[in-house]
Specification:
This protein folds into four domains: 156 residues, Sandwich (Immunoglobulin-like); 234 residues, TIM Barrel; 36 residues, no CATH class; 123 residues, Sandwich (Immunoglobulin-like). It is built from 16 helices and 38 strands. The protein is α/β, with parallel strands linked by helices and 654 residues long. The radius of gyration is 25 Å and the shape is globular. Helix content is 25%, strand content 24%. Strand 30 and strand 31 form a beta hairpin. The structure holds alpha-D-glucopyranose. Alpha-D-glucopyranose (GLC) binds next to loops.
Length: 654
């Protein structure tokens, strides 16, 4: 059952699509199953007691565990590439949680600004959700189980975006590919080494001076022809689009935006100026439908050149610094001129100056400096901050549906809010080449699925820092199962394309396994979209009465047939797995054979070499596997065979 309560005057985020009548909150009990204490005295604050064994699921793209207990999280879309344990905000804002114990209660706080989830942090037995203003919708969902509550939630937020089948292929990316030649080299090295691939990503250097919807003519002398040539080689080029529009006379997107008043404004009506990759930029007012239509329409510049997929970036929106921020630094420097003159070490730089510099990036003050035009009313950005990435991707999604109504396009975003799942997927942003980030990748997946984001994945191999061969292989073996399977890394880091390492055949094999599984994985993905289900689930969703399963956070259920348990530590020859029931342990071996062994319920140590891909088939189930193909189009369904338990059947959703 779903109940909707209204507090104050909420902003219409459009996260929820179902028409549900709202009850005005007037001090009543909002949930019979778990009593909530709501206070409106100082903003909004909702708290409830949590029992020792209650599990708190949710929060989508958030740090730490699948069970969110024992820490605090703040929904505040942030461009922060260092996802260390203490970080409370990442790129997305997904305010849905489930308190799951003897009762199962889902809570969705539809509120587009900062909101804090203290989940047993201040007091271990207390859940407190608070925000500055008591203007929000609260949805309270009760059900039989955590999964039942999730499905009810998914039904009210609308169907998830469907990615094209080619987007289940492998993609190679690197911030640093500059020219058509660079891209051709990547493609030919993959093809020459017979490593399957379907996509190469174009990071910011394909643009002319980082201007959205432009292509550098020296680096790509005939872009449409190049796109076509790649297509003939079964490669989709996926360009990046950034949120900020470069300020430059003669640049049409900038000039049109200024003329039509489409950029976010300061209080005095001038266009807000922020520095991002292109230097000084303006932010299109993505909350205004007219602006969305205009900005979305620009994607046609690239689709008409043959492009059929995009990644939207820097859309928290990220701000390196603002004019006001620089003014503050200059002022602090002027005030401390004498001391700075005498400073003979960085430590001696006056605190005021250093703190001004530290606060330049993504400053909360800057987010208070610009406004959106919502139905003729000026709304200060910080009050709707978490909706920016959602609406940028909505602009693109709506436009792409118009441009090619019968074609599925690939679209994913860095920043998001619930509701954006109807328009595109997400990737989990700038992770690091750390072993702990394989596990973080795994743990985020089911939480994201709960919030409707099914087409997701992380930068495989790690974005920041230098990677290692074994890290890439182990991470790819998880990536085999994530809808988005992309190897991406940052400028200046060690090259991590599969052909950069010794024994390329191991990479060929691991990625080949992905292609052998694509019919199954895409089918389970489509079923999850159609039925508002989860592609990835925590074990506790399938085995709620098995405490050991509920507490297992390094394995996931995938679709209705399998469980995955990737290796995420270095220098090991396998790992311990917990089987809540008998399963068939399957390993795709480097010689192309498949190892199968039935394992009984309980704990096992399984050997998994760097070049093997393990999975577990549930008792009585089977999955289709095909032969390896060089790309998604080349998958031959004639080669299908079924792997798993004798007598089991599988229905393919193609
Ligand atoms: C951001 C993105 C990253 C990209 C880089 C350059 O950091 O998250 O994926 O490579 O910008 O565009």
């Amino acid at each position: 059952m779903v109940k909707k309560y209204v507090f104050g005057s909420p902003f219409e985020t459009e996260a929820v699509t179902a028409g549900i009548e709202a009850a005005e909150y007037a001090g009543q009990e909002v949930c019979e199953d778990i009593p909530m204490n709501i206070s409106l005295e100082n903003g909004f604050c909702c708290s409830c007691h949590i029992n020792d064994t209650d599990v708190i699921y949710g929060l989508g793209e958030a740090n730490r565990g699948i069970n969110k207990r024992g820490y605090k999280y703040v929904s505040n879309c942030t461009d922060d590439p260092n996802h260390t344990e203490q970080k409370v905000s990442l790129y997305g804002a997904h305010n849905f949680i489930i308190v799951s114990g003897t009762k199962h209660v889902g809570l969705f706080f539809d509120y587009p600004a900062n909101i804090c989830f203290d989940i047993g942090y201040t007091r271990q037995d207390l859940l407190t959700v608070s925000c500055e203003r008591a203007d929000l919708y609260l949805y309270v969902i009760t059900g039989e189980s955590a999964y039942d509550v999730t499905k009810q939630f998914r039904r009210i937020i609308g169907k998830s975006y469907i990615a094209p089948k080619y987007a289940f292929g492998y993609g190679q990316s690197r911030w640093g590919y500059k020219t058509a030649d660079d891209i051709e080299t990547v493609v030919s090295r993959y093809r020459d080494n017979q490593i399957p691939i379907d996509m190469v990503y174009l990071d910011i250097d394909y643009m002319q001076d980082y201007k959205d919807f432009t292509v550098n003519p020296e680096r790509f002398p005939d872009f449409p022809q190049f796109v076509q040539k790649m297509k003939e080689n079964r490669i989709h080029l996926i360009p990046i689009i950034d949120a900020g529009v470069k300020i430059e006379d003669g640049y049409d997107v900038y000039e049109e935006g200024v003329e039509k008043g489409y950029f976010c404004k300061r209080e005095d009506g001038s266009n807000f100026v922020a520095a991002v990759w292109p230097g000084w930029t303006h932010f299109p007012d993505m909350l205004n439908p007219e602006v969305r239509e205009w900005f979305g329409g620009k994607y046609e510049i690239l689709t008409s050149a043959g492009i059929d997929g995009f990644w939207n970036d820097m859309n928290e929106p990220a701000i390196f610094y603002s004019e006001e921020g620089i003014d503050a630094v200059n002022q602090a420097i002027a005030e401390h001129a004498k001391e700075l003159d005498r400073a003979d070490s960085a430590i001696a730089v006056p605190w005021d100056v250093r703190s001004c510099i530290d606060q330049l990036q993504n400053s909360p003050e800057d987010y208070k400096r610009f406004y959106h035009n919502v139905d003729g009313k000026m709304v200060r950005h910080d009050l709707v901050h978490n909706l920016y990435g959602f609406n940028m991707t909505r602009a693109a999604g709506e436009a792409l549906r118009k441009i090619a109504p019968d074609k599925k396009m690939l679209l994913f975003s860095r920043s998001s809010y619930i509701g954006m799942h109807r328009y595109g997927g997400i990737w989990t942003g700038d992770n690091q080449s750390w072993w702990s980030h394989i596990l973080l990748n795994l743990k985020m997946m089911p939480s994201l699925n709960m919030c409707g984001f099914l087409y997701t994945g992380a930068d495989l191999g790690g974005f920041g820092s230098d990677t290692t061969r074994d890290l890439v292989l182990r991470w790819l073996a998880l990536g085999v199962f994530t809808p988005l399977m992309r190897n991406h890394t940052a400028l200046g880091t060690r090259e991590q394309e599969c052909y950069q390492f010794e024994h390329i055949e191991d990479f060929r094999h691991v990625i080949g396994v992905r292609y052998r599984l694509i019919p199954y994985l895409y089918s389970e993905y489509l079923k999850a979209v159609e039925k508002d289900e989860m592609y990835f689930r925590p074990l506790g969703f399938d085995y709620p009465d098995d405490r050991r399963a509920v507490e297992t956070e390094d394995q996931l259920m995938l679709g209705s047939e399998i469980m995955i348990a990737p290796v995420y530590t270095q220098n090991v020859s396998g790992r311990t797995v917990y089987l809540p029931e008998e399963m068939k342990f399957v390993k795709f071996m480097p010689d192309g054979s498949i190892y199968e062994e039935i394992l009984r319920q309980g704990t096992h140590y399984v050997d998994v070499a760097l070049n093997e891909v393990p999975l577990f088939i549930r008792k009585g189930k089977c999955i289709p596997v095909v032969d390896v193909a060089e790309n998604v189009d080349a998958i031959d369904m004639e080669t299908v065979r079924y792997l798993g338990y004798d007598g089991a059947e599988y229905e393919l959703d193609a």
